[in-house]
Amino acid sequence: MIVFVFNSILLGVGLAMDAFSVSLANGLKEPQMRKVKMIKTAGVFGVFQTGMPLIGWLCVHTIASYFTAFQKAVPWIALILLGYIGGSMLKEGISGEVEEIDDTILDKKTLFIQGIATSIDALSVGFTIASYTWYSALISTVIIGVTTFVICMAGLKLGKIFGLKLADRATIFGGIILIFIGLEIFISNVFM
Known about the structure:
Elements: H1 2-29, H2 35-62, H3 64-71, H4 74-95, H5 108-119, H6 125-128, H7 134-166, H8 170-190
Helix pairs in contact: 1-2, 1-5, 1-7, 1-8, 2-3, 2-5, 2-7, 4-5, 4-8
């Protein structure tokens, strides 16, 4: 049982690195983010990181042949989604049209896209836990989600700290981070 929990935490840490970086960028862009919004934001990443491996597990046990074909599109989807969001942030930061800081900077649509983009590669974790029973897969993915939540809260807090210090350059820096993450996911899955 201890090995099972430890392995699930390690999976969570590995899967949460993209979400951590995006959380860092979100904190940079919105250094005045309230605690409730931070919890909701980290919660979205945690839910996606819980759901995607579980969907992958379900795919292995139901439609595995279809999922294999879809897996090739994962790096492209992450690259396009994160490139779009990061490019928008870069454009906003370079043009000097940075919005006033308010509760609408990180809207629901953007957060949803970020959640998908950072967790879509987690579908393949369903293959690694394919031998688990339904109950074990559920427990493992919940541990992954909780781990992601904690890591994303840390990313948001760090981003807020540096966001206050970088103020005018935070949007540019956050955009660069998102584009880099998209490229990293793409390169590591297509060329490695």
